[in-house]
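User: I'm putting together notes for a lab meeting next week and I want to include a structural view of one of the chains we've been expressing. I don't have a solved structure, so I'd like a prediction I can at least talk through. The sequence is below, exactly as it appears in our construct file.
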Amino acid sequence: MQAMQDSDFRLRVLEERYSKVRSRLILINQNMLEEFKLFNGAVEKLSQEMDIMRKDMEEIKTVTRTLLKTSQQFAQKKDFLAVEKYINLWNPLHFVTEKEVKELVKAEVAKNRKT
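Assistant: Thanks for the context. Below is the predicted structure for the 115-residue chain, given as structure tokens.
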């Protein structure tokens, strides 16, 4: 009889332990599912951000290509040097205005009349 009671007691203790382990396992599974959902959400968000970054990079590449094509149409240094050479040759600062020419002609005519 005593052995039977001991067996019943041990069985109840084991059932209690099993019940506690089972409830802990259920809790762990629930926590794992929640963490998995959070992790998946974070991965999804990172994936979306990566897509946005890829699109931005493509846009930057396109703008850079456009800038390079446009900059190739700019005047080069040798072109500026040629223009500078002609400007220095002609020296537009020494040009006279029509008014100045008329005054010079009048002065010469007046000078020639006096002599």
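A couple of points you could mention at the meeting. The helical segments are 2-71, 77-90, 98-114. The two ends are 163 Å apart (CA to CA).

User: Perfect, that's what I needed.
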